[in-house]
Amino acid sequence: MKPAVLERAKGNIAFSHVSFGYSPDRLLMRDISFEAKPGQKIAVVGSTGAGKTTLLNLLMRFYEVNGGKITVDGVNAAEMTRSGLRKNFGMVLQDTWLFSGTVAENIAYSKPGAAREEIIEAARAAKVDYFIRTMTQGYDTMLDNEAANLSAGQRQLLTIARVFLCNPPIIILDEATSSVDTRTEVEIGKAMKQLMNGRTSFVIAHRLSTIRDADTILFMEHGNIIEQGSHKELLKKNGAYAALYYSQFE
Ligand SMILES: Nc1ncnc2c1ncn2[C@@H]1O[C@H](COP(=O)(O)OP(=O)(O)OP(=O)(O)O)[C@@H](O)[C@H]1O
Ligand SMILES: [Mg+2]
User: Interhelix angle for 182-196 vs 116-125, to 10°?
Assistant: First the structure.
């Protein structure tokens, strides 16, 4: 069968009765359903081991679902090629992957052959252009192995620039928990906000500000979504999310 093709998704994502287990005889997720409309922001919250990373890995098809389906703009993700699916996604993860090469090459990783002006524009959007210009060789500064000459925050801003450059309709963010100072965190927050603008975004969220202004919060526990809705709706419900909110954030 010919794979389904989606050139550039609008960004409607729907999980419909998805079940999944790392081993099929032991299901982790049983009946996951939710929808993200184009441009919406979905915050995924839950304690460690709840299944947040697994949910996003299923969306990008690092694993296949055991039941139900995931659609992108109504097209079953399982019928697309993995590469065709993934070119619609950009990711900003906690452990940023940079390679030995110049700053410009590292940003251009998401778009081989990008022009210098595009790279600079992406860096500006990510609010990291100014910092790059303070480096000895600017955009031609070599990042040594593991980019040890950069802070965690600067590394994350470079990956944000990468995603701006390839301009995907859907993004996945794994919000940093600590390891950056407050000022850098503010910078990252601003850049992320800009990046999410006009894109469907899934955020594994730790910061209250990110969670509170999400269109939908998915509250996960033991592999399943036990509550979903906006911050307001979930507080009104006075269930698990409300309990977490009042215990942690007040
Ligand atoms: N590759 C894997 N093989 C088998 N089990 C796994 C694998 N990855 C995760 N799990 C299990 O699946 C469950 C959900 O894990 P997951 O990584 O999705 O949680 P999480 O919500 O992202 O947690 P954290 O907040 O710690 O990142 C856990 O019980 C975990 O042990
Ligand atoms: Mg995780």
Answer: 110
The C-alpha angle 99, 185, 157, rounded to 5 degrees, equals 25
Closest by alpha carbon to 141, among 183, 107, 179?
107
Q: What is the pLDDT of residue 95?
A: 72
- Whether ligand 1 lies within 6 angstroms of the CB of 48 is answered as yes
- Mean pLDDT of the chain, nearest integer: 91
Which residue is closest in CA terms to ligand 1's atom 29? 49
45's CB contacts (< 8 A; 6+ apart) are 52, 204, 205, 211, 217, 218, 219, 220, 241, 244
Which pLDDT does position 179 carry in this prediction?
65
Name the closest-CA residue to atom 28, ligand 1: 49
Task: In whole angstroms, give the CA distance from residue 245 to residue 168.
Answer: 32
Q: How many CA atoms lie within 13 A of 113 on its CB side?
A: 0
pLDDT given at position 24: 82
